[in-house]
Design goal:
Strand content of chain B: 15-25%
Distance between the termini of chain A: 39 Å
Distance between the termini of chain B: 43 Å
Number of domains of chain B: 1
CATH topology of chain B: Rossmann fold
Number of helices of chain A: 1
Order of helices and strands of chain B: HHHEHEHEHEHEEHHEE
Number of strands of chain A: 5
Largest sheet of chain B: 8 strands, mixed
CATH class of chain A: Alpha Beta
Strand order of the largest sheet of chain B: 3-2-1-4-5-6-7-8
Largest interface: A-B, 25 and 47 residues
Strand content of chain A: 25-35%
Structural class of chain A: mainly beta
Number of domains of chain A: 1
Largest sheet of chain A: 5 strands, mixed
Radius of gyration of chain A: 12 Å
Strand order of the largest sheet of chain A: 2-1-5-3-4
Oligomer: heterodimer
Helix content of chain B: 25-40%
């Protein structure tokens, strides 16, 4: 299945050519969960990767749906 | 300074005030009423480093009645590329004292309350007593969670800002109405310290935090609620991520995620 991923904060720079207007399509196996997407994007648990759908932060074992638009971000902690 | 005697917050605008703030009073949605609301406000600035320096400068210059500055650190040489309230002669001094001295020079009519203390679960209820608004200028997640929880419990609005390199994020949190910091970031994750940063990055995010503070206190405009604004100075891009309150939030939703 395909999900459309929009990246925020420091994450877009990891994906050369990433277009913030369009996001990017990520191909995942059927039944993939939030943690599978983070693993595919190579975002470790220590980095605090957050996946949100319609603005709602999802748990790591939440199932993704084909065609979903997901927002992925992590805290920017400096001040 | 604290305990300087005169309570500026309740006194009417003077002739001098009307001149000093004339250019912002000219703003139609703000006017003298907006200026009076700023004069009556007591704002807590958590951290007077990269974000806290410009936040406190612009809030002092805008005529906030009372500013409480909270930071337990002393000024270091490595701070000076971005922490513009502090200079070479301040190295070794408590940041809040260095900051208070400069802010008083910028605007002697603002009451400055410098507190060189740590924000902890024990200290936060006392720190927030009498506060109308909190600006998050902290440099770590752990203290942000404590600040967020204190603000949610006390029902005080919190303007969050965070920076790294040339990238910054900002959102305005209104307890009970918007997602809180723990709705957005359910888990405590610590970033790498020291983090890379240019001085212009906190300056930019701090200016946006002050815009939010002025609008919130004076009651006009649209607030940056229910979304995180990201500004990427490396690519000169602005993006927004929508955010929702999390019913399972351990701080404001009454449960565990």
């Amino acid at each position: 299945m395909n999900v459309k991923v929009k990246l925020f904060g420091l994450l877009p720079r990891r994906f050369p050519g990433y277009n913030p207007e369009q996001g990017m399509e990520v191909l995942l196996p059927q039944g993939a969960r939030v943690k599978d997407l983070l693993a595919r994007l190579d975002i470790s648990k220590e980095e605090g990767g957050i996946v949100a759908m319609n603005g709602l932060v999802q748990k790591a074992d939440a199932e993704l749906r084909d065609g979903s638009v997901v927002h992925v971000f992590h805290p920017i902690a400096g001040g | 300074m604290a305990g300087s005697g005169k309570d500026f917050s309740t006194s009417p605008l003077t002739e001098e005030d009307l001149v000093r703030y004339s250019r912002q009073i000219l703003f139609p949605a703000f006017g003298e009423e907006g200026q009076r609301k700023l004069r009556q406000a007591h704002v807590l600035i958590a951290g007077v480093g990269g974000l806290g320096s410009p936040v406190s400068i612009y809030l002092a210059c805008a005529g906030i009645g009372k500013l409480t500055l909270v930071d337990s650190d002393a000024v270091e040489l490595s701070n000076l590329n971005r922490q513009i309230l502090h200079g070479e002669e301040d190295i070794g001094e408590q940041k809040v004292m260095s900051a208070a001295r400069k802010l008083k020079k910028l605007n002697s009519t603002v009451e400055i309350n410098p507190l060189a203390v740590r924000i902890t679960p024990e200290s936060i209820p006392g720190l927030l007593r009498g506060i109308n608004l909190v600006v998050d200028c902290l440099d770590n997640m752990k203290t942000r969670f404590i600040l967020n929880e204190g603000c949610v419990q006390a029902g005080i609005a919190l303007i969050h800002g965070g920076i790294a390199g040339m990238i910054g994020e900002i959102t305005t949190i209104i307890p009970g109405q918007t997602p809180c910091f723990a709705c957005i970031f359910p888990r405590d994750v610590e970033g790498k310290k020291p983090f890379p940063v240019f001085g212009c990055t906190p300056a930019l995010i701090a200016s946006l935090q002050v815009m939010e503070a002025i609008k919130l206190l004076a009651g006009f405009g649209e607030l940056l609620t229910g979304k995180m604004l990201y500004i990427n100075g490396e690519r000169m891009e602005c993006t927004q991520a929508p955010l929702q309150k999390n019913k399972a939030c351990r701080v404001c939703g009454g449960g565990n995620i």
